[in-house]
Write a structure and sequence with these properties.
heterotrimer; A mainly alpha (145); B mainly alpha (808); C mainly alpha (113); A: 145 residues; mainly alpha; 5 helices; 2 strands; 66% helix; 8% strand; C: 113 residues; Helix Hairpins; 4 helices; 0% strand; elongated
């Protein structure tokens, strides 16, 4: 990425980016978990997270971001895919059709009445894949000279 | 457990690469050996139950919504095949440990394919559901393809692999057609249920068609005339594979299929004629051409073709029992017994012969029978085993082949007198065919063993100095050879334990209660080696031996006759013509004419065609409607958005610089996001907004490297055509959208989602719940595609050749 | 509104096809981008634009927008992002290797038609 040229005098951008990154990141986590009942979900959450990282990339540069977040995004994609497939395939082993989801409501101490849903695990897989793929794309293109 | 057993080889295959990589000092085969050994001991435990007539059934739901489940059904027939597959499998793996060098060969590939094949084969013989049967059936074709092409560096291996797959998969597809027809007529995919309603099926319109289609599958797999041509070419496979797949198991899948479907189809004359006729023709053809071969494995390949024909013919004869009154007292009940008996015998003697051919190849470096000879004194053990196998194949006592050949002759003698379907006129011809084929079988059996092991040793012709094989390699063929002898002496025990339960599966219409020894309906067949001096079988056998011996001693004089057949008239030439001439060259020429290389032109033709077809259909079917009823009202701010969107689109059209074009596209994207907000689609709006942001960043990143958007020279007529086509598509989309809005032909299904989303899926956001739950499959594949796109991008950028590598 | 939207979709498709049929790789990519926007709006329009609330369960709301087209479009948006990114990089790499973004020149002959 040609951000190196912009590197002079972008202190304000860098400072703001740090704060905004966390705001977007936590918002994306919220959106991800809220997805089952209100607008949101794995796709939007994943995209928001990656856009937060992209913002960091623009404010700093790829090398710095790589140092802060030493994540292999290809592995992240693979993990997401496996998680999604495993959630989908799990019911087979208990004698239910492929892709049966389970859910129930629990009374957790801090959260009150909460529903725990295997669909959330599947959605987490989607989340990981989306972040992984987006960042793979940005990173590979950006690093190519 | 029973269903799981089918998949044990496949699961075991997962560990093979690890073992192969990390435990190099021990041959991987020793680990593999455990699998068939375990399975064979598992299936042995079923014998006592199945012998008493208790079929064992276990099922496992796979796709319940399509009513497809794995049902493992073990009756006499299935159990016999399962035992053959795992039993011969054990011996073959044992043999392969000594045959394949652990330092030179890619053993992990070999054993993965082999285990995959084992699962496929067990699945074929145990499936009760026709769709799973078909799946396993094709899996055998695929794993056979991989095994034949194991030495993929050789052209002939690849050719043989492709040939076998083309022919068997084509046959498999026909068979699938037959299955579907049968299921439509019977209303079930379960073979057991179909057998139960066999009499009603008889009158269905497509009964005969289904029958022919299923037979095509069986004939291609079992290398029957004229589809046998793939089997000789499949001999390029490593010898353990030939011994396993192409003599003992896979080619018998077709036999299994015919046997399994006999209760359904036996009532049809077409079945009797086709199975018996093709079987006998194959028997004759294979035995005639086996003598022509000079390759040891070539001889065995044609002999396998011929022996399969024999079993097929016997199964055809067993179907006749359905048509005869009081069949239980005629000889036809022997036919099925003889078929199964010969199947077992063939597996034993042919398996050992293949292994010997492999040993000869291994120790002398050649399989060319013209170079071989005189190996008897150097390889005495191999010679003994080969002699036992060959004499059994020729039908001599005291070996098991003699017994089943006698029974075959008995069945053919009975056919001669059979009145129905004008067999009495043809019957004598069938008998002659059977006898001639037996004579040639005798000749090629002797040809195989004596040309290799007796005569003069041509040491200078052999690539290697011959010596006896290591004892480990000889164990497997020796076990089989011992079985060949043992079975001769205890045929009735084998019959009680293995054959009679299988016969009951083939001819259930003959026996009411076959497993109660006192009941009159039991299977009262005993095998006798000695029929007495007056029996015609004896004299036929003597006749065969005498003529065969004369022909063998004069072999050198008449073997030249085979050269008369021109190579261009064979079925192989036909196959080559279809594959190379028609498919390869013909299609290349055709596509060269139509496709001249300009993708833009193809696209334009495609778009024009789509436009023409859709608009044409719309008006031809009078489907175009426009109505304003029920339309949402238009607000001012919406109009403004539309104007922005149109302006953005126009910008991209006329933009001369990269940035302008990206800004135009971005504007369109964000406007679309706003539309989503207006139309109550918050999920979409959110996603679209974020994705648009990332996309614009991506575009900027990449476009930075790309050249300016210049004006490109355009051939004027093409410019007009291009404009016309795009306007056409635009018009088509508008018309479609209008018609779709203006008429609701079916009730929307969204009510279902609204009603069940909370109670059944436990969610509130219907869109998200559809994505992760109702239509989770779509999402699963979607993220897979996304992952693939990411990998593709990664590969395109990171994995390219550097300048230096390019020069190389 | 649906009537107007039908024309908007048609217009988007027209522009997209026009761009896709051009010689420049960049225009082709922009064309595919427009095409996916057009397709998304088309699906939404065909499903009807009625409904007064988002398809999320809430008390007292019964007139939802149709959730099915929305679910389809959500899938399509993400896929089209992946595909666009892929062909972008494809174009980029093609340009690096061949030093041109003209599809006709890439074919080898300088002449179209």
């Amino acid at each position: 990425m040609k951000v190196t040229k912009l590197k002079t005098n972008d202190l304000i951008l860098q400072f703001t980016a740090k704060i905004v990154f966390f705001i977007i990141f936590f918002f994306s986590i919220h959106i991800f978990f809220a997805g089952h009942y209100t607008p949101g979900g794995g796709f939007v959450g994943g995209l928001l997270t990656s856009s937060a990282i992209v913002l960091l990339v623009i404010a700093f540069d790829l090398k710095t971001v790589r140092k802060i977040l030493p994540i292999n995004y290809m592995y992240m994609t693979a993990t997401g895919l496996i998680l999604a497939l495993a959630t989908a395939a799990f019911p087979i082993f208990v004698g239910k059709p492929f892709f049966t989801h389970f859910f129930d409501y629990f009374n957790l101490p801090l959260f009150g009445k909460t529903s725990l849903h295997t669909a959330a695990l599947f959605d987490l897989g989607v989340f990981l894949v989306v972040v992984g793929v987006t960042m793979t794309i940005i990173q590979t293109i950006g690093e190519d000279e | 457990m029973q269903v799981l057993a089918i998949f044990i080889p496949l699961f075991a295959a997962i560990f093979i690469p690890l073992l192969f990589r990390h435990v190099r000092t021990i041959h991987t085969g020793w680990f593999v050996l455990i699998v068939p050994l375990l399975l064979v001991s598992y299936y042995v435990t079923f014998i006592s139950r199945v012998m008493k007539g208790n079929d064992v059934l276990a099922s496992f739901n796979w796709i319940p919504s399509l009513n497809i489940s794995f049902i493992s059904y073990l009756d006499g027939l299935s159990l016999l095949f399962s035992l053959l597959i795992t039993g011969i499998g054990t011996l073959v793996v044992l043999y392969s440990i000594f045959y394949l060098d652990k330092t030179k060969e890619q053993l992990h590939n070999f054993y993965i394919y082999l285990l995959m094949f084992m699962t496929a084969m067990l699945g074929v013989v145990q499936s009760d559901h026709m769709i799973t049967l078909y799946l396993f059936w094709e899996l055998t074709s695929i794993s056979s393809f991989l095994l034949i092409g194991y030495w993929f560096q050789r052209d002939k291996s690849r050719f043989g692999a492709l040939k076998s797959m083309m022919i068997t998969v084509a046959g498999g597809l026909f068979m699938l057609g037959g299955f579907v027809l049968l299921a439509l007529m019977g209303g079930t995919y379960s073979i057991r249920e179909l057998i139960a309603q066999a009499p009603q099926l008889m009158d269905e319109q497509y009964f005969v068609l289904a029958l022919v289609l299923i037979l095509l599958g069986a004939f291609t797999k079992s290398a029957q005339f004229p589809f046998y041509i793939w089997l000789p070419d499949a001999m390029e496979a490593p010898t353990p594979v030939s011994a396993y797949l192409h003599s003992a198991t896979m080619v018998k899948a077709g036999i299994y299929l015919v046997a399994r479907f006999t209760p359904i189809f036996a009532a049809s004359e077409v079945w009797v004629w086709l199975v018996t006729g093709i079987g006998l023709l194959t028997l004759l053809w294979g035995s005639l051409f086996a003598v022509k071969q000079t390759d040891l494995k070539g001889i065995l390949a044609f002999s396998t073709v011929s022996q399969l024909g024999l079993i097929m013919a016997l199964l055809g004869a067993s179907a006749i029992a359905y048509h005869v009154e009081d069949a239980a007292n005629t000889m036809f009940k022997y036919a099925a017994f003889a078929a199964i008996f010969h199947l077992i015998n063939h597996a034993t003697f042919k398996g050992s012969l293949f292994m010997i051919a492999g040993i000869v190849d291994h120790e002398t470096g050649t399989r060319d029978i013209r170079k071989l000879g005189g190996l008897m004194s150097i390889m005495p053990l191999s010679f003994t085993v080969a002699l036992i196998g060959s004499l059994s194949m020729a039908g001599l006592p005291p070996f098991n082949g003699f017994l089943s050949k006698e029974m075959f002759l008995t069945a053919m003698l009975t056919l001669k007198d059979f009145e129905l379907f004008e067999f009495s006129t043809w019957g004598i011809l069938l008998l002659i065919v059977a006898v001639v084929a037996s004579v040639f079988t005798f000749v090629y059996s002797f040809y195989f063993v004596f040309k290799t092991f007796t005569g003069k040793l041509q040491a200078s012709e052999l690539p290697q100095k011959p010596h006896e094989a290591p004892i480990g390699m000889l164990i497997a063929p020796m076990i089989l050879a011992v079985l060949v002898v043992i079975i001769f002496f205890i045929p009735n025990l084998v019959g009680d334990v293995f054959i009679k339960p299988a016969v009951f599966a083939i001819q259930p219409f003959l026996y009411q209660d076959p497993f109660l020894s006192s009941s009159p309906g039991m299977i009262d067949i005993t095998v006798e080696a000695w029929h007495g001096f007056k029996s015609p079988e004896l004299w036929l056998t003597v006749c065969i031996f005498v003529v065969g011996a004369i022909l063998f001693t004069t072999l050198g004089k008449w073997q030249k006759l085979y050269r008369v057949q021109p190579a261009k008239l064979s079925f192989n030439a036909l196959y080559d013509f279809i594959m190379d001439g028609v498919l390869n060259r013909g299609m290349t020429n055709l596509s060269k004419h139509i496709m001249h290389g300009s993708v833009r032109h193809y696209l334009m033709y495609m778009f024009a065609a789509i436009c023409f077809i859709v608009i044409g259909t719309l008006f031809y079917k009078d489907a175009f409607r426009i109505s304003f009823k029920g339309a949402a009202p238009i607000e001012l701010y919406q109009l403004i958005l539309i104007i922005v969107l149109v302006l953005g689109t126009l910008t991209t059209l006329i933009a001369r610089s990269r940035i302008t074009a990206i800004v135009g596209l971005g504007a369109v994207g964000y406007t679309v996001a706003l539309f989503f907000v207006m139309f109550n689609a918050p999920d979409l709006a959110l996603t679209q907004l974020v994705i648009e942001t990332i996309s614009v960043a991506l575009f900027l990143l990449v476009f930075y490297h790309l050249p300016r958007l210049g004006k490109m020279q355009e051939y004027t007529p093409f410019r007009f055509r291009r404009l016309a086509v795009s306007i056409g598509i635009g018009a088509m989309v508008t018309l479609l959208a209008l018609s779709a809005h203006s008429q609701k032909l079916v009730e929307s299904i969204n009510k279902y989602y609204k009603d069940t989303v909370y109670t059944e899926a436990g969610g509130g956001n219907i869109v998200n719940v559809i994505l992760v739950d109702y239509r989770g499959f779509d999402t699963l594949f979607e993220i897979t595609v996304l992952g693939l796109a990411g990998m593709g991008i990664y590969a395109m950028i990171k994995l390219r050749l550097s300048r230096k590598e390019k020069i190389k | 509104m649906e009537i107007v939207m039908a024309f908007v979709c048609g217009f988007l498709f027209m522009a997209a096809i026009y761009l896709i049929l051009s010689r420049s790789l960049l225009r082709i990519i922009i064309g595919t981008g427009l095409l996916s926007h057009g397709a998304h709006l088309l699906i939404l329009t065909m499903g009807g634009l009625g409904g007064t609330a988002p398809p999320v369960l809430a008390e007292g709301v019964s007139d939802f927008a149709d959730p099915i087209p929305q679910a389809l479009i959500l899938t399509a948006i993400v896929i089209s992002f992946g595909v666009t990114a892929f062909i972008l990089v494809l174009a980029y790499r093609a340009y690096q290797e061949l030093k041109t973004d003209d599809t006709t020149a890439m074919k080898g002959s300088g002449i179209d038609d």
